[in-house]
Amino acid sequence: MKIIPAIDLAGGRVVRLKQGDFAAQRAFDHDAAALARRYVEAGAPWLHLVDLDGARAGAPAQVDLIARIAAGGGRVQAGGGVRRRDDIERLLDAGVARVVVGSVAVREPRTFADWLAAFGPGRLCLALDLRRDRAGHWRPAVDAWRGDSDADFAALLDDGAAAGLRHVLTTDIGRDGMADGPNLALYRELAARWPALAWIASGGVRDRGDVAALAATGVAACVAGTALLDGTLALEDIAACSRAA
Q1: Is residue 46 a contact partner of residue 2, using CB atoms and an 8 Å limit?
Q2: How does pLDDT run across 136-194, given as a tens digit for each residue?
């Protein structure tokens, strides 16, 4: 069980959103590269970078900053606006170890399968961002969470696993940035149905208790953003929780 610190970037600044709402943006007075170094020095095995400008534009927009962060040490997974093969290559060239792909993987699973074959399953991560509709069904979100897809996410995962998919970052959008705790039932169900996938849980992590509860669901890691910035999850918890798990 790993804690992966999340750093969301908008206009070069460290920010957090609530439920992906760009109008509900909270900025923090941190230099992004310095913050990343603190996380790495605290024992973070990975960093999760989200290019929010890129997500809105549909193409990576802060590659230079991401490269500067990656050069500071630690392994980086990054996404936001990845729509083309060239986008993946730019991020890998910038020092990113694993590129997060969302909308294209949902809309064009064959394209994503081709990318898995070209770059290898260790270099790509599927972003499966889920939102419940009024009927209670989970719908994958696309376009920086501004739209929902009718894609069958179970079929998407089955096909992805057959194509070599290994890493899946799953966010319950309703919990993201809300400090309400993670959706344990969702992650338990996903990890049980697709145990060969390395699940990364995202959304709602508040403290060490939530990390321990997530470890019991079978996920491989969890992303923590607001909790680390606000201090409800301490820097020393990054290494301590990983050792305990």
Answers
A1: yes
A2: 777 888 876 676 777 788 999 999 999 999 999 998 887 666 567 899 999 999 999 99
Residues facing 202 on adjacent strands: 171, 223
Tallying the residues shown for the chain, one arrives at 245
Paired strand residues for 21: 18
Report the interhelical angle of 109-119 vs 153-162 (nearest 10°).
30
Catalytic residues: 8, 129
Concatenating the DSSP letter of every residue in the chain gives: -EEEEEEEEETTEEEEEETTEEEEEEEE---HHHHHHHHHHTT-SEEEEEEHHHHHHTS---HHHHHHHHHTSSEEEEESS--SHHHHHHHHHTT-SEEEE-HHHHH-HHHHHHHHHHH-GGGEEEEEEEEE-TTS-EEEEETTTTEE----HHHHHHHHHHTT--EEEEEEGGGTTT-S---HHHHHHHHHH-TTSEEEEES---SHHHHHHHHTTT-SEEEESHHHHHTSS-HHHHHHHHHH-
**Cβ distance 94 to 70 under 8 Å?**
yes
At which residue do the structure tokens 């992805």 appear? 160
Sign of CA dihedral 150, 155, 157, 159: negative
**In order of start, what are the domains of the chain with their CATH numbers?**
2-244 (3.20.20.70)
Query: How many Cβ atoms are within 10 Å of 79's Cβ, its own excluded?
Result: 25
N-term to C-term CA, the chain: 5
Residues 96-130 pLDDT 10s:
999 999 999 999 999 999 999 999 999 999 999 88
- Contact between 146 and 171 (Cβ < 8 Å): no
